[in-house]
Specification:
Strand content: 15-25%
Order of helices and strands: EHEEHH
Number of domains: 1
Shape: globular
Largest sheet: 3 strands, antiparallel
Low-confidence stretches: 78-82
Number of strands: 3
Amino acid sequence: MKITLETTTQDIWLAAVAYHKGYELIDLRKLGDRKLFVFEDSDEFQLLKRDYYWHRDRVDPLRLKKAIRELKSLAMGELSHG
């Protein structure tokens, strides 16, 4: 049995950067009136978070815009996910 470690964020911008970079959104959970974006945790994901918070990451603006739209659709319940 494979054990999967998870990492979560309420930050839609961090979630969009991760999604844009190819990390799979494995769940979307309710936290009161907010959503938690859940990704599989890894050393690479932790480096992505570090680069995001330290303003070291670069993204394609149009791909990021698309990722934000997709995550907002999921968060608003337009698509059923978890």
